[in-house]
Each structure stands twice: as structure tokens, then as C-alpha cells.
Specification:
disordered N terminus, Farnesyl Diphosphate Synthase, 590 residues, Isoprenoid_synthase_dom_sf, 66% helix, elongated, 28 helices, 3 domains, mainly alpha
Length: 590
């Protein structure tokens, strides 16, 4: 496609000259109109009369042409935008030169469309040439007032119902659709040097811009996308009365646009709020279902309940992806408990990730301190999906969120590189980082909160953490961490020094005996912790038995061949984890 010659740029020649635009500089009308099928919503439903479809497609074609010039045209785009603006003025004189603008002539006459409304789309694309970041959502919303909202108002003009109250609701719909499109196109926009997610939101979620163009979505980006998509959902909820205030063909058409937005929100949930790995597009069947519901009732599900369900789904995504062992047990719980335990796990995982991350130690400690503050302010109105779900869990199940303070304390010890002189010191650490999670899980199970049950939940957590320490002894040492008590190491003549190639320098036999000794201690904690199982209901018992069973089998493998952990990270194949979970559900776990 040829570029617009330099002499056609603004200030270098009259924008009234169309002879300076080489053939093919602007795409054919048919090329742009075919893009209607790839939109999140139905642009011009076939059930509408031909005259209405013609008007809607004319407006769509114009909007697509302006976007093409602002986003994709090769060469000096300002000159082409000048040309479009000039031809738009000719529309109102009945003499445009560009085919897609010629199609607008009867529409503006029949529907009384103001020129200023169509010109706003050009203004937005001029802004795109200069502004590539938006600091706040308010700034982005101002941009949407030019880039998206005019389209909704144009639709209302086509149906003869462009009243101020309806326009205000339509603006919310269009801003929501624009936000969703920005989320869908986050990588494509990023590669063009444009970021339409507010800078303040990227900073809140600690999401660097390079995450927008990475090969896979980071947890921070997924949380950010959840927040932006939820913001769009709230706008759609606020605007839903627009449908009920319309009737006839207007209601049918506008309901389709709202339905497309709602279906796109669901598509993001299905995709794990990951717009990077694959294109996020709404399912046409779901679009139709949302459309039918809106047309018939004029309303759609919304409010806090939808937001909370979406937050729980985000926590379940984190659990499935990150909890390689725990997810098998959590999946055995009934829905409410499964979602609640996923929320507990998701926040616990966040704390662990802060402690194990790549940031400087002082930043890690500040991050852990911030996590404490987040717990104090957790609410279903929070911007963070994990905090939304956690607040709801605490409210419904009386989960003592203050117990997370112990987990944070343990992670702070990790960051400071603390080592342990005696087993009692290590035991305190294990109770902080794992016993705490056991007690939180017990609150979710909700069967028995007696001191005996809490002590056994704590013991089971200790057993699992000791298993973790033995499994990861080599990996932790390479990362500068030693958890085995110094007194025990001296007893077996072990120093846990490493050779130049990162392998243990100790006598293998001595090191194996030390690991077997610590494994024996862990067995004692399993013996006490597994006494919790009879105190739980069937499904909670199955969940707990599955999680404990997988780790217990790991410990057995380590005990049978302690030298294995000195060569590699011991793990169970997925089929064996599934078998343990199945036995647990059937009440057969040992």
C-alpha cells in the first residue's frame, strides 16, 4: 500500500486535494465492512429491516475507516486524518469523495446526525498520534468520550431516540466496550507503543509494561486484566436500564451491543484473564443467550454477587495453575468450600511469591508489610480479586485472616536468611508457614474448631512443611537457604557445603542418614496430624486426605532412597496424584 506523499501533510498543501492520495492508500469499503463479523457484538443483526442495517453499516464503515487511518495507515497519518475531516464536511454538502463517506450522506440526512458527533472519532485518532499513555482512568474515560461513546450516540440517532438520559447510559456501554477491546488488544497495542491501561492501575498491580508484550501473561497482568474487565462489567451493569427504556427495534439492536459486552466479560473469565496466550473472543451462543435475556426482561445479572463470583474464579485459576499438589485435594470439596480454600491458597501463594521473588530484600520486606495492610483492608469492594474473594470467605465462614500474619512472619524469616539452631526453632517456623494454612483450612472445613482440631491441623501443616524442606534441600541450599537444624547437622557430620558445580560436598552416606532422621520426625507429625481426618465431614476429609496423601507418599519415597533428593527434586506423576485423590474421595486414603 503506497504511503501518502509528504506534500499532503498538514500545513504543506490544501486538504481539499484528493489527487494527492495514490490509489490504494485507503482500503476498499468491503474490506473494512467484513470486519463487522469479528466484533464482540453484532453490528447490524439480520433480523433488523434492511434500511436500519444500511444505516448501521454506514456508521460502522465510517468508524472503521477512521480507526484504520489512525492505527494502521502507512505514512503521515495526520495528513490522512485531515483528508477525512475535509471529506466529512463534504458529507453535509452532499459531495464526499470517499466511498464510505458517500454512504453516510443519506444517513445524516434521514437521522439528523450532527457533524460534530462524527468528527469526534477523528479527534480521538488525532490524539492517538500524540498520546500513548493515560495516567488515570479519568483521563482514559475522557479519551473514550471521543473514541467510543459517539458510536452509541450515533446508534440512538438512527433509531430516533437520542435523548440526554439515554445518551448518558449509552456512553457507559460504549466506554465498557472500549475497555474490553483495550484488554483484548493489550499485546497488539503494546507492540505499537501504546498502552491503554491506566498507568495508576499498572502501578497498583505492580505490572510492568513489558508484561503486556511478553510471551505469557504474568500473575500481575492477569489480576490487572481482571480488574479492568470487572470495571467494564460494572459499567455495563449501570447501563443495563438503557435496554429496558427502549422498545421495538431499538431495544433489539442495543440489547445486542450490551450482550456482546457481557459475553466478552465471560470470555475473559473462561480464558483465565489471559489476553496474551490466545485471542479472547466471546462465544456466539453466549452472546445470543445474553441478548435473549436482555430483550425479554431488560435486565441482566449484576452487582456484588457477580463481582464476588468472578473474584473466586480468579482464585481458582491461580490454584489450578500454581498448586501442583494441593489442587487435587481442593477439587474434592463442594463448591463453596472449594472456592473459599482457593481464596486462602491464592493469598498464601502471593505471600510466598513475595518472599521467593527476585526483588531486593528490602523490597520483599516492604511487600510483605504491604500484604499485612491488605489483610486489614480486605473488602468485597477491593480492586484486587484475591482480596475480594478472601473478604467474602472471611465474612461467610469466619476465617480468621489474622492467622496470615504468621505466614508473613515465616516469609520474613526466609528473606532475612534465618537459619535454625534447634528443631524447636525450625518447628516454630513450620507452624508459621504451614501450620497457619492448616488452621485456616480448618476454618473453611467448618466442622470442628476445638483446640484439639486446631492442634491436629497445625501438626499436619508441620508434617507437610518438613516434607517440603526435605524434598527441596538441594534447591534451597543453592538459593542460600538452609532449614535443617544446625544441631542435627553436627550430629551427622554434615555441613551442606556445595561443590563448584552446585552438588553436595558432604559424605553422601552421612547426608542420607540425616535426611532419613528428619523424615522420621516428619512421620511422627503425620501420625498426629492425620488424626484430624475423623473429625471432618466426608468431603473435607477427602480433601485433607488427598493433600496429605500426596505429600506423605513423597516422604515415603525420600525415606526409601534419601539420596534421591541430592540429585533431583522428588515428585509424583499426575496419574499417581489422581489415584491418591480418588482413594481419598472413596474414603480409602491411608
Amino acid at each position: 500500500m503506497a504511503a501518502l506523499p509528504d506534500r499532503a501533510q498538514t500545513g504543506q498543501q490544501s486538504t481539499g486535494s484528493f489527487e494527492m492520495v495514490p490509489p490504494g492508500q485507503l482500503p476498499a469499503a468491503e474490506t473494512l465492512l467484513t470486519q463487522a463479523d469479528s466484533e464482540n457484538f453484532t453490528v447490524a443483526a439480520r433480523v433488523l429491516p434492511r434500511s436500519i442495517r444500511r444505516r448501521l453499516l454506514a456508521v460502522y464503515g465510517y468508524a472503521r475507516l477512521v480507526d484504520y487511518v489512525g492505527d494502521e495507515a502507512i505514512g503521515p497519518r495526520e495528513g490522512l486524518l485531515d483528508l477525512l475531516e475535509h471529506d466529512l464536511r463534504r458529507v453535509y454538502a452532499g459531495t464526499p469523495r470517499i466511498p464510505l463517506l458517500q454512504a453516510l450522506v443519506p444517513v445524516v440526512r434521514e437521522c439528523g446526525i450532527p457533524q460534530e458527533l462524527l468528527a469526534r472519532l477523528i479527534t480521538a485518532n488525532r490524539q492517538d498520534q500524540q498520546v500513548h499513555r493515560y495516567r488515570t482512568f479519568a483521563e482514559l474515560a475522557d479519551y473514550c468520550a471521543y473514541s467510543a461513546n459517539p458510536v452509541g450516540e450515533l446508534v440512538l440517532h438512527i433509531f430516533g431516540c437520542a435523548r440526554p438520559d439515554l445518551i448518558a447510559l449509552s456512553d457507559r456501554v460504549c466506554t465498557a466496550l472500549q475497555i474490553l477491546e483495550h484488554c483484548q488488544d493489550v499485546t497488539e497495542d503494546g507492540r505499537r507503543g501504546r498502552v491503554y491501561l491506566p498507568t495508576e492501575d499498572l502501578e497498583y498491580f505492580s505490572c510492568p509494561e513489558q508484561d503486556l508484550v511478553s510471551a505469557s501473561a504474568s500473575p500481575e497482568l492477569r489480576d490487572l486484566i481482571w480488574f479492568e474487565v470487572d470495571r467494564a462489567r460494572q459499567l455495563l451493569d449501570e447501563a443495563t436500564p438503557l435496554v429496558s427504556r427502549l422498545s421495538g427495534l431499538a431495544r433489539l439492536a442495543v440489547a445486542g451491543y450490551v450482550a456482546g459486552g457481557r459475553a466478552t466479560v465471560r470470555a475473559f473469565a473462561t480464558a483465565g484473564h489471559d489476553p496474551v496466550s490466545a485471542a479472547v473472543r466471546p462465544n456466539r451462543i453466549r452472546v445470543f443467550g445474553e441478548w435473549a435475556r436482555l430483550c425479554l426482561s431488560g435486565t441482566a445479572p449484576g452487582g456484588e454477587a457477580v463481582r464476588v463470583r468472578s473474584a473466586y474464579r480468579r482464585c481458582e485459576e491461580i490454584t489450578r495453575r500454581e498448586a501442583k499438589n494441593f489442587s487435587y485435594g481442593i477439587s474434592l470439596l463442594p463448591g463453596p468450600k472449594r472456592r473459599a480454600l482457593s481464596a486462602v491458597y491464592a493469598f498464601a501463594r502471593r505471600i510466598d511469591d513475595i518472599g521467593d521473588g527476585e526483588r531486593p530484600d528490602e523490597d520483599k520486606l516492604a511487600g510483605l508489610d504491604h500484604a499485612r495492610d491488605e489483610l486489614r483492608s480486605a473488602d468485597t469492594d477491593s480492586a484486587d480479586p484475591v482480596l475480594v474473594a478472601l473478604a467474602d470467605t472471611a465474612r461467610r465462614m469466619s476465617v480468621p485472616l489474622e492467622v496470615f500474619d504468621e505466614l508473613i512472619e515465616g516469609c520474613e524469616a526466609d528473606v532475612r536468611g534465618r537459619r535454625y539452631e534447634t528443631f524447636d526453632e525450625l518447628l516454630h517456623y513450620c507452624r508459621c508457614v504451614a501450620g497457619s494454612v492448616g488452621r485456616l483450612s480448618l476454618a473453611v472445613f467448618g466442622d470442628d474448631d476445638s483446640p484439639t482440631a486446631r492442634a491436629r491441623a497445625d501438626a499436619l501443616g508441620v508434617a507437610l512443611q518438613l516434607t517440603n524442606i526435605l524434598r527441596d534441600v538441594l534447591e534451597d541450599r543453592r538459593n542460600g537457604r538452609v532449614y535443617l537444624p544446625r544441631q542435627d547437622m553436627e550430629r551427622f557430620g554434615v555441613r551442606l557445603d556445595l561443590t563448584e558445580d552446585g552438588m553436595p560436598a558432604d559424605d553422601p552416606a552421612a547426608l542420607a542418614e540425616l535426611i532419613r532422621f528428619e523424615a522420621g520426625r516428619a512421620e511422627q507429625w503425620y501420625a498426629e496430624g492425620l488424626l484430624l481426618l475423623p473429625m471432618l465431614d466426608h468431603r473435607s476429609r477427602a480433601c485433607c486426605a488427598a493433600m496429605a496423601g500426596i505429600y506423605h507418599e513423597l516422604l515415603r519415597r525420600i525415606t526409601d532412597d534419601p539420596r534421591t533428593v541430592l540429585r533431583t527434586r522428588v515428585s509424583l506423576p499426575s496419574r499417581q496424584k489422581i489415584a491418591v485423590a480418588a482413594r481419598s474421595l472413596a474414603g480409602m486414603a491411608s
